TrEMBL record:
<dbReference type="GO" id="GO:0032259">
    <property type="term" value="P:methylation"/>
</dbReference>
<keyword id="KW-0489">Methyltransferase</keyword>
<dbReference type="Pfam" id="PF01596">
    <property type="entry name" value="Methyltransf_3"/>
</dbReference>
<dbReference type="InterPro" id="IPR002935">
    <property type="entry name" value="SAM_O-MeTrfase"/>
</dbReference>
<dbReference type="InterPro" id="IPR029063">
    <property type="entry name" value="SAM-dependent_MTases_sf"/>
</dbReference>
<protein>
    <submittedName>
        <fullName>O-methyltransferase</fullName>
        <ecNumber>2.1.1.-</ecNumber>
    </submittedName>
</protein>
<keyword id="KW-0949">S-adenosyl-L-methionine</keyword>
<dbReference type="InterPro" id="IPR050362">
    <property type="entry name" value="Cation-dep_OMT"/>
</dbReference>
<keyword id="KW-0808">Transferase</keyword>
<dbReference type="GO" id="GO:0008168">
    <property type="term" value="F:methyltransferase activity"/>
</dbReference>
Amino acid sequence: MSSKTWTAVDDYIVSSLFEADPVLDAVIKTNRDQGLPAIDVSAAQGKLLSLLVRIRGAKKVLEVGTLGGYSTIWMARGLPADGKVVTLELDPHHAKVARSNFERAGVSDRVDLRVGPALQSLAALAGENAGPFDLIFIDADKPNNPNYLTWAMKLSRSGTVIVCDNVIRDGAVLNKDGRDANVEGARAAFSFIGGDKRLDGTAIQTVGAKGYDGFAIAIVD
């Protein structure tokens, strides 16, 4: 099957199951107009994240990698009124765009956006005793996956759900002899989750508007 078919099926999913959402459409357009890379999750993936927040009954969510805030908005919408997403972004321009998107979506009161290197922000959160979080979504620079997962464990508790994006990479995750840093980061995520007895995890391969990739999903025992 072709990527054209995958995208058409994604469009069918959205048209069949989702209400029209001009706000999120505007967020994606703003991100493109502002020169952000087109690496946001798809609408179907964003809805999955929102549902995971609701299924978990999460009140505290941590996101590593904000970009323009598209996935952040999906998760914030899944929270109760007193819930909060703490989201971490390195690039000040991306963060500025994200803030305007949060305002547009009416979720600014549920989002705490922190700008700077994520590993420093994670250490700061630990120092503030900001955890434990109920759900943690990791979607940042892939070579740092094991470092982000290490911090995720420090900021979690029994029952915390951890989701790590982009772990299949067109099937390149099978290439154990490759030297692509993103693929090595994906493999490191599998090694971490599979090697930590506190985690019970799996992975879901995805095809769609974003191509062939997937999520790793784990729960802290």
